[in-house]
Amino acid sequence: MHYPIGLLFDLLASSSALPWNITVHFKSFPEKDLLHCPSKDAIEAHFMSCVKEADALKHKSQVINEMQKKDHKQLWMGLQNDRFDQFWAINRKLMEYPAEENGFRFIPFRIYQTTTERPFMQKLFRPVAADGQLHTLGDLLKEVCPSAIAPEDGEKKNQVMIHGIEPMLETPLQWLSEHLSYPDNFLHISIIPQPTD
Questions:
Q1: 166: how many CB neighbours lie within 10 A of its CB?
Q2: Which end of the chain, N or C, is surrounded by fewer C-beta atoms within 10 Å?
Q3: Domain hosting residue 148, numbered range
């Protein structure tokens, strides 16, 4: 319940045929394998916690702290009820930045791999280099997860997936964060073994 469904698809089933078959069990909940969700309030609290963490990275929490409780509720209700306009009216503010800054303070991202025991990797990473150049997805991966990138003369062993697509490594990280972040405002990046077929 704490990973977005698109991320789970990228990690676990991106090479399978669509539609993705999901089995829902109503008895014998697998407590040892999954976190049990005690209530809708717990899901809302987790979501808002993630949004606040992302805003702390992007804007030093200034945007989320300037919002009123009704704005937080509108954000959640828009997501919960699948009302994009209601959600985006508030989330748009979380995606803006002053023009003179050329981007967010840090990019809220998490990198997931199926081949490691770590649930995910996350660290501070600026969208703009000290010389003013925009950092790319490739720059992020070289610093945080260099094994994900094939050597120039080597065979590609991994696939980098976001929302079911494999973006080019030259894509600016700021652009990815603005356009491919999940509703929690994080860029969830999956690194999976290269399909053999």
A1: 13
A2: C
A3: 101-196
